[in-house]
Amino acid sequence: xxxxxxxxxxxxxxxxxxxxxxxxxxxxxxxxxxxxxxxxxxxxxxxxxxxxxxxxxxxxxxxxxxxxxxxxxxxxxxxxxxxxxxxxxxxxxxxxxxxxxxxxxxxxxxxxxxxxxxxxxxxxxxxxxxxxxxxxxxxxxxxxxxxxxxxxxxxxxxxxxxxxxxxxxxxxxxxxxxxxxxxxxxxxxxxxxxxxxxxxxxxxxxxxxxxxxxxxxxxxxxxxxxxxxxxxxxxxxxxxxxxxxxxxxxxxxxxxxxxxxxxxxxxxxxxxxxxxxxxxxxxxxxxxxxxxxxxxxxxxxxxxxxxxxxxxxxxxxxxxxxxxxxxxxxxxxxxxxxxxxxxxxxxxxxxxxxxxxxxxxxxxxxxxxxxxxxxxxxxxxxxxx
Amino acid sequence: xxxxxxxxxxxxxxxxxxxxxxxxxxxxxxxxxxxxxxxxxxxxxxxxxxxxxxxxxxxxxxxxxxxxxxxxxxxxxxxxxxxxxxxxxxxxxxxxxxxxxxxxxxxxxxxxxxxxxxxxxxxxxxxxxxxxxxxxxxxxxxxxxxxxxxxxxxxxxxxxxxxxxxxxxxxxxxxxxxxxxxxxxxxxxxxxxxxxx
Lengths: 385, 197
Known about the structure:
The complex is a heterodimer. By secondary structure, chain A is of the alpha/beta class.
């Protein structure tokens, strides 16, 4: 809970809801006749609407990226470290828009919202959306806000995939794509981890084929397990070692098989449990599928450079040395395709010990390059207006 | 701008696709982009330099030439590949030169001349590895692990069938002086070569 709002915070923010009645045709062949997207905005849209920045969230993220909803909030938004007055995404200069994606569980239309056709929650009937569908829905949100072209679309991890997809899908509506700790496609190992997470959820007896809402129950054990596995992939061996080592909760071994003995066990249990209380299991399944399917090169015979041919924006790609979920090699795969396609691109491999989570942590060099790039965008935006 | 960069920029044609290996703070690429509509990339490993490039709007790729080769660049994908004052610091200058000529149609290379008369005099008089303003390091901490003279470089070009399109020399202040041209291997401090296959 903040006692006072820090000067570099966007302060108390209130989400808004955008409702769309025009059907959205999805990649899977189905359509959503109507849907709503919950979003937040910070900063001021300038007169020629050229300073808008879209933030795309990752697997478990949402629209609340910065500031506080109330003075009772335990923590600010999930990317508060990078968004606010004087921060890399400077709200004194940019108009920041962030939303909860379709299929999410924080207010946008998703498995836990009511299906107008049945009057019950969508549950497993919610269509399997893709990054491309998300980008299409985000474009409609941009239309409703009067934003013709984003100064930048920015995201880490799965968020970076959306920024990449924007550059391909709407080349005239994006001037910069910032793709951080991301990848142009999942590796086999990434998909394997996702499958473990899905299996953990679907084999929970409370899952009921995804219709747990109707049974007034919840597969919290399965979701907890899924998150525990996921969480391990977000951290590096070194950062886990640094934080927990081989520390025991009670100095000595218990010689029991069922007790929580090591501190890391206790931490994972805590993280998993907390997450399972605040997240929807069907959304988790959906998000892992969105990740699995993302592969813009697929329609071009696996040639990523060909997929990027029509892109017009500048690209900022950053990876972190200890990220083994989406390792620097995955970012380099994207960078090499951008080089081959002769696109404007800058790439940094940032030395940080935190693994995949490093994209959320304001380490000095990360903040330096992020700020330098964003400042350049702000100056060009000012020059254009 | 450094005089060697002023010379190099004259050798690069408008709208060329340029790769600058060890681009420093991006001065050359920023100039080329502004005045010659050149689209290019710089490779750099120094974090302060990379930030400067980003501030200038120069495309910069963090890539260590000694750790990673240039295999991520396709054959003849650039009109010109530039390497200023770095060839003497890479682990395999001969392989580097081959690689530069593989990915670029032309290459521009600058390096300090170890045959410069003051360096020769230093070694002869003191019997120790020369330390100068151009080469300010001692033997054990120098990044310049493959120093050569103009003659050495040209011998390598001859051996590898590399065609020298143009060459010039400048002094420590990167100025072109008439006497440098008379006896470059003795009087020239910094060599600038424009080569192709």
